[in-house]
Amino acid sequence: MNEQFSSPGSSKQSTESSEQQVSLPHGTSRSQRRGKKKKILIGLLITVLVLITLAVLGYVYGPRIYKDYRMKQYGEQVDNIRLTVKVSEGQWLSEKYANGFGEPFEFEGELLAASSDKSHIAISLEETDGLVQVIDTATRDVVLELPYTNKATVGLDNYYDAGNNTVPVRTRDEEGTGEYSLAILNMDTLELTQITPPFPVAPTTGILSYNETGDVLLFDSRDSAIMQMKHGEPVWQTQVTGRSYLSKFRPVGDRYYFEFTISNEPPTDSFEFDSDQPSSDEKLLIGLDPSSGDEIFSQALKDEDWITIFSDGYLVEESDGDTGGITFDDKPQPGTFYDLDGREIARYDAVPYLFMTPHPSLDSGVELVGTEILDQYSDSINLVASYDQDGRPVTYAKFVGSANFVSTRDAIPETVYQLIRSSADGKVTAASVSDDNYDQWVKLYDASGNEIDSRQCDSRLKIKHGLLVSSLSHPTVVYIPR
Predict the structure, then answer these.
(1) Nearest 5°: CA angle at 6, between 2 and 8?
(2) Comparing C-alpha atoms, which of 374, 406, 411, 369 is closest to residue 79?
(3) Which of the 8 DSSP states describes residue 481?
(4) Which of 320, 24, 272, 308 is nearest to 149 (CA)?
(5) CA angle 216-130-203, nearest 5°?
(6) 292 near 256, Cβ under 8 Å?
(7) Distance from C-alpha of 320 to C-alpha of 334, rounded to nearest angstrom
(8) Pick from 119, 125, 122, 123: which is nearest to 137 by CA?
């Protein structure tokens, strides 16, 4: 019998080989586990990096995406707004800005008026004690000069033009009698119409309103006397008792509204229309009948109360000392609405704040329907930034520093710093914006939000007689349309 056997060394080698065969699968399993752990760690690292990236992107772009989404929703709200508007021509941005900017006009003084076609402007020069010049905006030539005008007594802040493109002036015969006289300068014809009251014109006498039918309303700030004239003849005269400063005048419908601040200081010859408003804790609102001068109502108010006059009445906000919500504050105040005869109609716990321009409180000649704003559009009216002469919103805003166009929902790309106003036809809009370097610009946009033109500016802007004017800079800058 053949027996197979091995030596002891051979047996040991066989055993080791067997052990190696047994341990091989075990060694491969540890390597696989290490590989799986490595893959898991890499996956976790990638996941963390993705989450961090998404968080950063969400932090940077999330608010913008949400804001864009919300602004489109807000646009749907203003689509349904149609304001009832009556406003004088000069309150709209001139449609000539659709052609862009011409060369700006700089001077030391004040812009008084402009012609309908903006071919001429009237300015008052500071260094000449109120000399009035009429300037051709194309040639910059002086085409008319009035020898002496004290602009402080013509009531420019309260003068109601009603779209007639006129400016009141007060001249003095320096070389002759030294007497003062009043006149109305028509900016379209460049003609002067003399206003001759039946009494000597005092240094404190000015014109509050004028129309081509011969109606003239005069006010003397020395004794708070009011006189209505027709074709040079007095119709009626009345006087406000006590020391009072005329802070606001508005003709609305068949009513004259006068807002007086009760002064703690005695009146003087220099107590004029644009004097610093005297210290007081009381104001007086008076409604007069234009045909007779009879007082319809008078209402005593706190000096902090804010009055907004509409075509159907007026709103009194019971301010806590801050500017009222109907203006530019985002903290609405309670208010009471009265009809044109001073009768209380409704009380509101919170009056919607308005960013809109033209603004019923701050723009002479603007008439909006108060109950329409306070009742019908109370939830969305504060979105309107600018509107056209038919009451259709052109731009709207919700967040500070931004504004969107109603037609496209597109946003103005820059930070909106101040002032958004549109032309009467809604085809051109102006806004003061700030770029990434915090430089201020005034920019023009078409109805779709496309930029038309721009000019760098160094101060706040306002609209006067349809023109963009710097309000704080020296010299004064008028941005003439091309």
Answers:
(1) 150
(2) 406
(3) B
(4) 272
(5) 50
(6) no
(7) 10
(8) 119
Exposure string over 69-97, b if 16+ CB within 10 A, otherwise e = eebeebbebbeebebebebbbbbbbbbbb
Taking residue 35's Cβ as centre, other Cβ atoms within 10 Å add up to: 10
Q: What are the residue ranges of helices labelled H in 80-210?
A: none
Amino acid at 169: V
Distance of CA 178 to the CA centre of its chain: 42
**Residue 372 dihedral angles phi and psi, to the nearest 5°:** -65, -45
The count of C-alpha atoms lying within 13 angstroms of the C-alpha of 246, restricted to the half-sphere facing its C-beta, is 34
Residue 405, φ and ψ in degrees, nearest 5: -90, 135
Token pair, residue 471, equals: 């309000």
**Range 339-343 contact pairs with CB under 8 angstroms and sequence separation of 24 or more:** 339/312, 339/313, 340/252, 340/253, 340/255, 340/287, 340/312, 340/313, 340/314, 341/287, 341/296, 341/297, 342/287, 342/296, 342/297, 342/298, 342/299
- Written as one letter, the residue type at 269 is D
Measured distance between the N- and C-terminal CA atoms of the chain, rounded to whole angstroms: 126
**Tens-digit pLDDT profile for the chain (482 aa)?**
444 334 444 444 444 444 444 444 555 566 766 777 778 888 888 888 888 887 777 766 666 565 566 667 788 889 989 999 987 777 899 999 999 999 999 998 888 889 999 999 998 887 666 688 999 999 999 999 886 655 544 445 677 776 678 888 877 776 667 788 888 889 999 998 888 887 888 777 888 888 878 889 998 887 788 999 998 889 999 988 766 778 888 888 889 999 888 766 655 544 444 444 455 568 889 999 999 999 999 999 988 888 888 999 999 988 665 444 444 445 668 999 999 999 999 999 888 878 888 888 777 678 899 999 999 998 889 899 999 999 999 999 887 788 999 999 888 888 887 778 999 999 999 999 988 888 889 999 999 999 999 999 876 788 888 999 987 767 889 999 99
Three-state SS at 315: strand
CA angle 142–146–151, rounded 5-degree value: 110
Spatial CB neighbours of 44, under 8 Å, sequence gap ≥ 6: none
CA 177, 180, 184, 190 torsion: positive or negative? positive
Q: Is 104 exposed, middle or buried (0-12, 13-18, 19+ CB in 10 A)?
A: middle
Q: How far is CA 133 from CA 147, 345, 355, 478, in A?
A: 9, 47, 34, 15
Residue 445 amino acid letter? Y
